[in-house]
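Dear support,

Our group has been running a series of protein-ligand predictions, and this particular one with nicotinamide-adenine-dinucleotide is the one our PI (initials K.S.) wants archived with full inputs and outputs. We had some confusion internally about which version of the output was final, so please treat the block below as the authoritative record. The input we submitted was:
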Amino acid sequence: MTNNSKSILILAGDGIGSEIVQQAERVIDWVNENNLDNLVTSTGLIGGASYDEYGVPLADETLSKCHEADAILMGSVGGTKWDNVEYDKRPEAGLLRLRKDMELFANLRPALVFDSLIDASSLKPDIIRGLDILIIRELTGGVYFGEPRGIENLENGERLGVNTHSYTTSEIHRISKIGFDMARKRSGRVHSCEKANVMEAGKLWREEVTALHMAEYSDIELTHMYADNCAMQLLRDPKQFDVILTDNLFGDILSDEASMLTGSLGMLPSASLGVENPKTGYIKAVYEPVHGSAPDIAGQNKANPLATILSLAMLFRYSFNSGDIADIIEQAVSNVLKNGYRTADILDKDNLNSISTTEMGNAVIKELTILHGSHNGSCNE
Ligand code: NAD
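Confirmed final output from the archive:
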């Protein structure tokens, strides 16, 4: 690797993983060929593919490679083949280990409605036209990780299931900082969502978000909202939101709800971010589509690669601070849709011909080339 090159570790995973990631790799090649950046890729195994090779869903040596990479692009994991594997060796356990070991505490999920896919949503066009929300979910704390937890047998013969919802001030601060910083780059508005009315951890969340806001982010418009109200408002008037900041449990639910406003699972990217890696100078980060490994269409060249390509755009924006490359990739995707190209999952009533995964990749590369050419042309005029 040369001094100014950046490394991307690619973990394709299972099912459609390798097919969708291949198309994103073509975009990486395009970026290199056009001298927009100097990227060096390597690959590793995760999920069922890793289990088959090493007997674990994420091997220690792969994890070491993850810590050394400047950024990680993932496909998806899982499949029925591994249904009977022990719980801690299942494909999904590899993903959880990766997130936990790299301390990826901030999950970013944009819910963006492309004009040309407006009919794919179950909501009325007027409600979602132009929708552009960023959900920021705390990913390593709260009820999914709190102790004590477990199922115990009681003396009276009943069983008791226990989970603990807890947050410390530092956990709330670091995710809130991400929320406010992102809002500064967008429209300057944050909705912080919890259940401060019935949960102490929610009350602390609200107090700490307010304190940080007053101390460092008074330029941002902060609104507190109960999470159940947010769930309702997302359906009633989603465009009132820009950045939604929330905890692990509510974020899990609200981000799924928000992403479904867009109507198309194959279109949704995500980023999971941690702290700066002192070895590389970049933040620890994994970028992946929201959807799973789609075993029902795996190996058929039918999967929609756009969520993975949009995840790559997020990688450029958040890991490499290359907003211009992210912009051109996002614009290419938008143009491809405008030009009527559809994989089977996003077909609409006016468009009955679907294209393959590879053809969608071709269309994106073609559009990137046109956009880049016209940009250079206009610069030279
Ligand atoms: P899924 O997201 O894989 O599939 C749901 C439906 O959406 C399927 O009909 C599938 O064909 C379709 N679909 C998904 N992505 C698509 C794409 N890019 N293009 C076209 N169609 C697409 O969810 P599932 O079926 O519940 O789960 C399958 C496996 O994926 C399970 O093992 C699950 O645990 C795993 N999973 C992994 C992740 C991840 O890797 N982050 C996330 C969710 C589920």
